[in-house]
Design the sequence.
C-alpha cells in the first residue's frame, strides 16, 4: 500500500538566462521535448507515484501555466476528493527565496492543514526526470529522518520529503527561525532535525540556463536518455491536442530527430526537436535546432543552433545561425523576414 | 429537458466481416484509420463540428472496445450535462432479448431514447464511413424543402454503382425510385447511408415496420421503399466531398493511401474542421540517424530506424534498421524487426514481424496483404 503523500510544486522560480523564453510564461510552462512543458515531468512523477493531491504555487505570468494545466484532467487530477490546486502568490512584491518559499505557503496554510496526507514532497518545477517518490519515502521512514533531500550525482535536486505536520511547523515558525525555504532548513546547523540524502537513480537534470535547456533538449536524441525518460510504466502526461499525425512529403529528409504531431515536413531536418504543428518548407535545412509549436519555416531557409519559440515565422530564404554553446533564440510570435536579416 | 431540434443516431454495430481478421475482436467503426484515428471518429467529429450535441451510438457486435473508446464522449466534446453521447447496446425486455435485427429495428428499439428528447428531426448515420460533412447544412436543406426524408447522395463511379443503393431522382432532386445494389443501375447517385427524418414520420413508419412480420427491418430494404410507395416526400441531398466506405481490406488500404496524396480532398490539417480522437499519451516520434522517411503520415510514439515510403504509421509502431516499408499501413504498436521488406500491406495492431521477413504481393496482383499473426505462421510454414 502506498504511503500517502501530498505534492507541492514551487512554480515561482524564474531564471535570468532563460529570459527570452519567459516573456509570456513561467519557467514551469517552458515548452520542452516536442510536446511537453517542464512542469509535466514533476507532475507526472507525482501522479505516477500515487500522489492524488498536488498544490502548485506560481507567481509570475501564470496564465499559460493555468491554460496548460486546466482542471488537471490530463494528469488524472480532476478529482472530487483532492486533485489539483493552484495557489498564486497574493502579491508580486512578496519576497521569494528558494524552493518552497514559506512565506508564499503561509498564505495558503489552510490547504496544508486540511490535507490528510501524512507526508509531503516539495519540489521545484524545472527538473527533467522520470522517477517514483515511493522508494525515497520508504528510505525516509526507515532511517527515521525528519527531512530527506533528494539528490542526483550528489547534488541537490531541490526536492524534499518531510511530514506534512513538520512542514506546517516550519511555515508557522518561519519568522522566529529565519528559515525562508526548504534549503535554509537543510543547510542550517541550528536545529536538531535529522536530515538525510537520497540519491535519485536514472537520469535527472535541472534546467537553469538557456545553454542547459538547449543541451538537455538535444540530449533527448540519445537513445539512452530517451529510454530513461520515456518509460512505459511511467508515462509523462501533458495537455493533449487533437493534431493529425505528422506528414512527410516526397522531398523530406529527416535524421536523428524528435518530431511531434501535426507537422508538415517538406525540407531537411537533422539533429533537432520539432514541436506540434510546425511547418517546414521545401529546401529548408534545419540542424541542431529546437522549433516550438506552430512555427513556420519557409522554403530554402537555413537554420543551425537556433531555438524558435512558439508561432515564429521565418520567411523563405532566411539563414539563421547560432553557436552550439550559445544558441540563437527567437521570441514567441516574432517574424524573421528575408529583408531583416540581409 | 430542453427541447432539441435534431438527435443523431449513429449505427455502430457493424460486424465488417469483409475486413477479415481486423474485425475479429473489433466492431468495424473501431478499426484504426489514418495513423491515429478510428473510423467512427469521422462521424462523431462531424456531429460535434455540425453542432449536434445529442448522439445515440447503437452498438451490438464486439462492443467492449468501442464502448470504452467512446466513454462519456469527452474526446469529441460530447460529454454534456444534458444529452451528449449515449451508448445504446441491445438489451433484454422482461420476456425477450431484443437483438438489433436490422438498421430500422435498432432505431425502433431505442424509441425511448428518442422520445425523451421529442426532437423535430432525427439524423441517422453509419459509423463506418470516412468523410467530413456539415450535417447542419443538410438539415437546413431538409427543412427548406419541407421533406419527410432527406437522403444524402454522392456520385460514384459507374462501374461501382452496383455495390450501392442507387437513387433515381427527378430534376427537383425528389427521389422517385430506389434500387438496392442494382445489377443495371440507371444512375450513379449512391446513398451514403445518411438520412434525416421528420421524427413524426419516422415514428409512424418504425411502428408499422415493427408490426410487419415480413419486414427485414432495414432502412434500405424496407423503410425507404415503403415511404416511396406511399408517396412521401423524399429528397436527395447531393454531397460532393471525399467519402469512402472502408468496408474491405483493400478499400481501407486505399483510403489510407488517399491521405498521402498532395491534393488529398480529406484534409486532416484543417483546424476549422478537426477530426477529434482519443489522444494516446505518447512521446514524439523518433526518427533515427539511419532512417529515411518520405510521403508518409506518422503518429507520435513511433520509432523509425529504417526506410518508410508512402505509408501510414500508427502510434507505437517500431521500424527496425535496414527495413523498408512501402505503400503500407502499420497499425498501433506493431513491431517490425530488422531487414524486413513490406509492400502493399496492412500490418495488424501489435503484430511482431521477425527480422528478415519479406512481404509483398505477386508481381501483377492488385492484392493488399493483411498481415496478422496467423498470416506470419502460414508464411513461415510455406
Sequence:
Amino acid at each position: 500500500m502506498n504511503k500517502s503523500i501530498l505534492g507541492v510544486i514551487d512554480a515561482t522560480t524564474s531564471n535570468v538566462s532563460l529570459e527570452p523564453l519567459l516573456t509570456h510564461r513561467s519557467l514551469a510552462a517552458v515548452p520542452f521535448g516536442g510536446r511537453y512543458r517542464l512542469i509535466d515531468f514533476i507532475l507526472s512523477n507525482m501522479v505516477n507515484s500515487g500522489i492524488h493531491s498536488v498544490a502548485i504555487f506560481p507567481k509570475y505570468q501564470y496564465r499559460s501555466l493555468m491554460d496548460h494545466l486546466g482542471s488537471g484532467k490530463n494528469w488524472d487530477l480532476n478529482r472530487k476528493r483532492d486533485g489539483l490546486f493552484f495557489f498564486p502568490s497574493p502579491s508580486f512584491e512578496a519576497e521569494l527565496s528558494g524552493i518552497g518559499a514559506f512565506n508564499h505557503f503561509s498564505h495558503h496554510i489552510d490547504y496544508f492543514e486540511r490535507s490528510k496526507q501524512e507526508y509531503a514532497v516539495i519540489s521545484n518545477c524545472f527538473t527533467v526526470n522520470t522517477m517514483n517518490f515511493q522508494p525515497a519515502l520508504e528510505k525516509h521512514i526507515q532511517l527515521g529522518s525528519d527531512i530527506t533531500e533528494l539528490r542526483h550525482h550528489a547534488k541537490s535536486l531541490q526536492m524534499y520529503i518531510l511530514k506534512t505536520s513538520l512542514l506546517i511547523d516550519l511555515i508557522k515558525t518561519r519568522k522566529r527561525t529565519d528559515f525562508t525555504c526548504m534549503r535554509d532548513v537543510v543547510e542550517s546547523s541550528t536545529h536538531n532535525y535529522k536530515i538525510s540524502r537520497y540519491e535519485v537513480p536514472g537520469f535527472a537534470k535541472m534546467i537553469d540556463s538557456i545553454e542547459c535547456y538547449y543541451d538537455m533538449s538535444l540530449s533527448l536524441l540519445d537513445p539512452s536518455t530517451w529510454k530513461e525518460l520515456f518509460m512505459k510504466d511511467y508515462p509523462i502526461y501533458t495537455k493533449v491536442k487533437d493534431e493529425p499525425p505528422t506528414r512527410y512529403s516526397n522531398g523530406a529528409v529527416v535524421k536523428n530527430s524528435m518530431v511531434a504531431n501535426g507537422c508538415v515536413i517538406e525540407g531537411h531536418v537533422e539533429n533537432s526537436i520539432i514541436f506540434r504543428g510546425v511547418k517546414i518548407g521545401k529546401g529548408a535545412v534545419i540542424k541542431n535546432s529546437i522549433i516550438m509549436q506552430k512555427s513556420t519555416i519557409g522554403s530554402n531557409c537555413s537554420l543551425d543552433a537556433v531555438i524558435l519559440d512558439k508561432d515564429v515565422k521565418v520567411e523563405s530564404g532566411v539563414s539563421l545561425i547560432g553557436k552550439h554553446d550559445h544558441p540563437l533564440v527567437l521570441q514567441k510570435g516574432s517574424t524573421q523576414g528575408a529583408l531583416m536579416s540581409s | 429537458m430542453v427541447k432539441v431540434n435534431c438527435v443523431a443516431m449513429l449505427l455502430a454495430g457493424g460486424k465488417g466481416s469483409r475486413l477479415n481478421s481486423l474485425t475479429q475482436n473489433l466492431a468495424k467503426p473501431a478499426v484504426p484509420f489514418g495513423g491515429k484515428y478510428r473510423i467512427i471518429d469521422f462521424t462523431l467529429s462531424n456531429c460535434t463540428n455540425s453542432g449536434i450535441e445529442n448522439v445515440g451510438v447503437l452498438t451490438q457486435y464486439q462492443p467492449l472496445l468501442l464502448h470504452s473508446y467512446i466513454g462519456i464522449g469527452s474526446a469529441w466534446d460530447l460529454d454534456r450535462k444534458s444529452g451528449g453521447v449515449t451508448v445504446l447496446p441491445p438489451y433484454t425486455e422482461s420476456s425477450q432479448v431484443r437483438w438489433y435485427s436490422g438498421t430500422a429495428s435498432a432505431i425502433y428499439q431505442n424509441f425511448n431514447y428518442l422520445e425523451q428528447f421529442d426532437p423535430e428531426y432525427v439524423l441517422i448515420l453509419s459509423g463506418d464511413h470516412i468523410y467530413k460533412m456539415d450535417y447542419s447544412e443538410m438539415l437546413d436543406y431538409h427543412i427548406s424543402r419541407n421533406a419527410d426524408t432527406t437522403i444524402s447522395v454522392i456520385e460514384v463511379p459507374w462501374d461501382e454503382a452496383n455495390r450501392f443503393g442507387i437513387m433515381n431522382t427527378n430534376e427537383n432532386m425528389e427521389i422517385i425510385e430506389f434500387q438496392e445494389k442494382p445489377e443495371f443501375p440507371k444512375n450513379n447517385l449512391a446513398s451514403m447511408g445518411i438520412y434525416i427524418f421528420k421524427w413524426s414520420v419516422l415514428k409512424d413508419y418504425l411502428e408499422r415496420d415493427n408490426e410487419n412480420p415480413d419486414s427485414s427491418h432495414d432502412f434500405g430494404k424496407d423503410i425507404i421503399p415503403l415511404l416511396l410507395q406511399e408517396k412521401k416526400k423524399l429528397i436527395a441531398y447531393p454531397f460532393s466531398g471525399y467519402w469512402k466506405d472502408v468496408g474491405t481490406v483493400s478499400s481501407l488500404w486505399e483510403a489510407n493511401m488517399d491521405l498521402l496524396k498532395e491534393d488529398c480532398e480529406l484534409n486532416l490539417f484543417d483546424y476549422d474542421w478537426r477530426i477529434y480522437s482519443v489522444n494516446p499519451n505518447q512521446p514524439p516520434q523518433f526518427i533515427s540517424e539511419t532512417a529515411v522517411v518520405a510521403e508518409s503520415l506518422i503518429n507520435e510514439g513511433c520509432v523509425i530506424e529504417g526506410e518508410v515510403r508512402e505509408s501510414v504509421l500508427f502510434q507505437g509502431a517500431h521500424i527496425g534498421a535496414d527495413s523498408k516499408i512501402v505503400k503500407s499501413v502499420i497499425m498501433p504498436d506493431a513491431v517490425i524487426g530488422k531487414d524486413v521488406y513490406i509492400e502493399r500491406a496492412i500490418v495488424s495492431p501489435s503484430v511482431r514481424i521477425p527480422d528478415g521477413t519479406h512481404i509483398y504481393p505477386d508481381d501483377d496482383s492488385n492484392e493488399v496483404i493483411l498481415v496478422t499473426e496467423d498470416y506470419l505462421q502460414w508464411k513461415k510454414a510455406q
